[in-house]
Structures are given as structure tokens and as C-alpha cells.
């Protein structure tokens, strides 16, 4: 420990080298946005890494992986068990130790989906040379940038570009659920200072009914964005349905109402609704999307280097965007630093950290009027809650857990029912156009296992697909 303190003390007494590094890194990150601001074509080139010499040893000496099972809050967790988001409970914390003794932190969720651990690619190498390598994964990149910034006594945003805002917009998030529960999530968000909520529009719930419930429970300043994930399927249906929803003033945007590669359909839809259309950057290719004017808002969710490249294009096209990187509050803090330097990150970032029962950090984000202050302390500006980390530790698992044993019933307004064992089954049916989309009065029900032979028999029959009945036997 004394050796580490001496190393850091030596670093602090050499301010000229530190200031030089800060200036070089900030210039590298801000050059892209500076070109846009000046009206020059932005170069699709990541900021160059700056080599560090002297006593400030930036070599990655140690990599530690800590695997956690972080429980969800009860209400969102109850609905996330139906789909792949249930795997977001598995979190990997990455700690990188530099030769100067500084430790950087980052995180990944659903870590078992990628069995590649890039330890060999980083050990023994200069962290400043690696931090723009998106291929290492977002968690490693967070840890590298956090470590380099801490080693130089600057916040992460100083490595990314020129700071243009003190606070950034941030959104609450939850999956699809009955309207009453959406309203409860929004009330919780409001109490914690949020003014925006993003959620999922799904054809197994009556979205108009959900919106009616929200309209009776939300203040005028609170806004809601709904993500269809393409499940309106085509513009013929989407135009009519989206126009019906325009009466709800709290709706801030429709995200991907129909598949994004349907250029003609999206042009028609955008011309036909006053609600802004949001789309993920890159599908269709960005120049096609801009030329054909198929959306109002972009969504950026790549690594740091690619996000900065994409943000420069969005700024040149005068397209606002939101940042969308899923994780706990570790990831939310990192996105604040990106938002600090990206001019058109004008919409609330989506980080999903509200679903977790624990933030994993010592000092959780404070949100006021929908905004969170961008930290000015070294690194990401947050520390792990080590007691919580130890309490939530688990063994690394190599593949996604099996689906929990469920029986889910879609209740049709005409009186029939369709039974499934997982959301994946009925989602495929809706996406293929084999089930009615968003009929008035539809809802989804979770049938608890009561231990009866009837429940077991019906569950067994759903192994190969949906079981459709004219009534509601269970």
C-alpha cells in the first residue's frame, strides 16, 4: 500500500506532464465535434491514444473479474422473468490495476453470452493505447477510461472531448406490464426526480388502455416513450394505430414502430404522425436514413469510439439522440461523461439501472428535474459499494439459465385464451402476423403453478407451441 501511495505522490508532483496529457487527450476527443461545429465534414476516425512515459506507469498489471447476481426490484422483476431481460441480473464487474496503482472499474451484463475474456489483449500494455478499442467490450472500455482518467486526476469526460453541459437528461425504464403498474413505476420515477419514462409497447397488452391509465396519473411535465421493436409490422397498420395514440400528450416518441429496414413504410409513417419517430443508428445505413428522412431521433448504443463517430454524424445532420447502454449505475455514470461532450445528446439516456434492487455504487445518482449532474471528480466519479459486491458475488456461469417454469395466458377480448410457456413463443406468433395486433381489451396473465394436475397438463401441452381455447379454463 505504501508503494502505491508513493507512486501516486510522485505523479501528483509532476503537473506539467499531467496537463500535457490532459490537453492531448481532450483535443483528440473534441476534434471530431469541433469539425461539426465549424461546419467542416467530420472524419470517421477515433481519437488517437497518447503514449505515457516517465514515472506515471499506465501499464495494465492486473485484471480482476467479479461475477454478481444482482436481484431486480419486485415489480419489474415479476415481468422480466418472461423474456431475455431476466438474464440482466447477471453482472460482471471488471477491475483493471495499472502499474501506478490506480484501479479502473467497468461492467458487463449478460456476461455469459460472450465467453471471450480479453485479459491477454490488455495485460502488459499501456491503458491509454487501448481505451479506444471498442472490440474489447464496453465493460473493459469503461475500466480503461476510468483508470486513465484517475491516473491523471481528471474526470472521464476530459478524455472524450470538450465539456458542453453540466447536467444530462436521464430516463426511467421498465418492460411491458399492465397500465396500473406502469403508473406505479412512473410515480416512483417522479418521486426520484425523473421526468421521462421509456417502456415497451407489446401487442399482448391494450396500449390504448394503458395510455388511458397513465393519462389519469401523470403530471403534465412527465413524458413517456414507447418502444414497439417493430411489432406494428407495417405502415398500413402503424399509421392508423399511431394516429389513434396522438391524443395522449405525454407520449414523447414512438421507437421503431415497424422494422427499420422498411424505408418506404417508415417514410410514410413519419409523414403521417406528429409523434417523433426514434430509430437505432445504422439500420438502414445512416446516410440512407438521413437522405430518406425516415426518423426524427437516433439511438446510439455502441462502444465509446463508435459512439463519438456516430454522434458527429448526428450533430452534422442536426439529429438529436439518446444514449442507450444497459447496466447498473456503473454504466449510467459512464454515459453521463459521454453526454457531457456530445452536443446532440439532448434526450434522456436509457441505462435500465432502475430495475435493480441495489445500485452497486456508494453514492447513487441524484436526479432533479430529469437531469443528473456530471461528476467532476477523477475517473467516472463513482466508487463501488464493496460490501454489496461481496454480498452479491456468485460463480461465473457459461450459458444463460433455463427459462423459469411458467404458464402465460393471453386473454382475447372475444373470450378465448392462448396459453404459452414463455414469451418467446407468442412473440414469434405476433411478429409473424399470425395473431391480432393490439386488439382493444387484450391482456396477458401469468397463471401461477397451483400444483394441480390441470396446470401441469396444460403446461406440458405448451412445450411445442401455443394452446388455443374458446374459453378460459384456467
Detailed description of the structure:
- With 474 residues, the chain is α/β, with parallel strands linked by helices.
- Among the domains are: 167-383, TIM Barrel (Alpha-Beta Barrel), CATH 3.20.20; 408-469, no CATH class.
- The chain is built from 17 helices and 17 strands.
- It has helices spanning 2-12, 15-37, 74-80, 119-122, 127-130, 138-151, 157-160, 179-191, 207-215, 235-245, 263-272, 286-292, 304-316, 329-341, 386-392, 423-431, 453-461, and strands spanning 60-69, 90-98, 103-109, 167-169, 172-173, 196-200, 223-227, 251-255, 277-280, 297-300, 321-323, 367-368, 371-373, 408-411, 417-420, 443-446, 467-469.
- A seven-stranded parallel β-sheet has the order 5-6-7-8-9-10-11. The protein has a four-stranded antiparallel β-sheet with strand order 16-14-15-17, sandwiched between helices.
- Helix 2 runs parallel beside helix 13.
- It starts with a helix and ends in a 5-residue tail after the last strand.
- The model is unreliable at 1-54 (pLDDT under 50).
Strand content: 15-25%
CATH class of one domain: Alpha Beta
Overall CATH architecture of one domain: Alpha-Beta Barrel
Q: Low-confidence parts, pLDDT < 50 over ≥5 residues? A: 1-54
Describe the strand arrangement of the main beta sheet, using strand numbers. Answer: 5-6-7-8-9-10-11
Overall outline: globular
Q: In which range does the helix fraction lie?
A: 25-40%
The number of distinct β-strands equals: 17
Q: Determine the structural class based on helices, strands and strand pairing.
A: alpha/beta
